[in-house]
């Protein structure tokens, strides 16, 4: 991969900001998000998501997790910010209201906060809340913002409803951890707070307790990252958002170059890139 290819997704032509968020959103939807399907499916299997499930997804991103739940017959509501370019892609996939083109369950996409996702009059409370966002960067913002969003969302769910939080597994089980360190190395000190991989095994539990939720089980899921070539791998990793601070703080071409170099150990003889990763999810309960 040449730096020029990476640069196509790092810069607006001759203008700031350096991150082309629309291109990043498309790369996330077309390249990266599918890597998390095993996580989504494992959670839905364990919780028997299907007809009768009323799902509220915080930080719904480009909507693939919603589409999978709706295809099982669940009624789904996704919440996101219009500032996140991925929300527009979720609307394309599922439609703002009603049924998506490939969905069996009713679908609603909400631009705003959980408070804007109050069930329509006469509809029962949500039976499941999910926050898959941290597995795909900070779709719900920092820890304090996530706590606030959960506080706003849990009153919309029935008592005892499961709340799913997800994140990276142990760094030693994630090949991508070494690649993500490039982001920290190149970015300014503020980027270190992003912590692409959790610092401790109890991070999800701590988040749940702070939000007033009761942990009630967890699991780990293998989510290997596989790409057709190094350029696709660079685009996919950049689309997570973990490298945005590095791009803004340094030469964008340098970010692409060093990211490609970090991916080299995971390149196979046929040119494909393969990184073994484990993600972890926590099931908590609404009190």
How many individual helices?
11
CATH superfamily: Vaccinia Virus protein VP39
Low-confidence runs of at least 5 consecutive residues: 1-15, 135-140, 189-195
Helix content: 25-40%
Question: Which terms would index this structure?
Answer:
287 residues, alpha/beta, Rossmann fold, two-stranded antiparallel ribbon, 11 helices, 10 strands, 18% strand, globular, methyltransferase activity, transferase, SAM-dependent_MTases_sf
Explain this structure to me?
There is one protein chain. This protein has 287 residues and is α/β, with parallel strands linked by helices. The protein has one domain (3-285): Rossmann fold, CATH 3.40.50.150. 36% of the residues lie in helices and 18% in strands. It contains eleven helices and ten strands. It has an eight-stranded mixed beta sheet with strand order 3-4-2-1-5-6-10-7, with helices on both faces. A two-stranded antiparallel ribbon has the order 8-9. The radius of gyration is 18 Å and the shape is globular. One of its GO terms (biological process) is methylation.
Concise synopsis of the structure shown:
The protein has 287 residues and is of the alpha/beta class. It has helices spanning 3-7, 21-32, 37-46, 64-71, 85-94, 143-153, 176-186, 203-210, 230-238, 244-249, 252-263; strands spanning 54-58, 75-80, 97-98, 107-111, 128-131, 162-168, 214-222, 225-227, 273-275, 278-285.
């Amino acid at each position: 991969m040449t730096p020029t290819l990476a640069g196509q997704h790092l810069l607006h032509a001759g203008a700031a900001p350096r991150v082309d968020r629309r291109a990043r959103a498309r790369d996330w939807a077309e390249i990266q998000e599918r890597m998390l399907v095993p996580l989504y499916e494992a959670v839905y299997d364990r919780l028997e998501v299907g007809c009768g499930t009323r799902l509220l997804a915080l930080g719904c991103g480009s909507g693939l997790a919603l589409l999978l739940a709706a295809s099982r017959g669940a009624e789904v509501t996704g919440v996101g910010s219009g500032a996140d370019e991925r929300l527009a892609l979720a609307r394309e996939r599922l439609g703002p209201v009603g049924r998506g083109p490939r969905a069996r369950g009713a679908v609603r996409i909400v631009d705003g906060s959980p408070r804007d996702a109050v069930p329509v009059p006469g509809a029962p409370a949500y039976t499941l809340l999910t926050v898959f966002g941290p597995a795909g960067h900070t779709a719900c913002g920092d820890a304090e913002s996530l706590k606030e969003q959960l506080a706003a969302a849990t009153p919309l769910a029935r008592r005892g409803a499961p709340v799913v939080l997800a994140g990276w597994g142990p760094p030693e089980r994630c090949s991508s951890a070494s690649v993500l360190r490039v982001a920290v190395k190149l970015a300014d000190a503020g980027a270190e707070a992003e912590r692409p991989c959790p610092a401790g095994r109890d991070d999800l539990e701590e988040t749940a307790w702070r939000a007033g939720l009761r942990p009630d089980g967890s699991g780990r899921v293998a989510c290997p990252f596989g790409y057709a070539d190094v350029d696709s791998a660079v685009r996919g990793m950049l689309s997570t958002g973990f490298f945005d601070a590095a791009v803004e703080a340094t030469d964008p071409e340098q970010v692409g170059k060093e990211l490609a170099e970090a991916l080299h150990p995971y390149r196979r003889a046929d040119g494909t890139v393969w990184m073994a990763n484990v993600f972890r999810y926590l099931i908590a309960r609404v009190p």
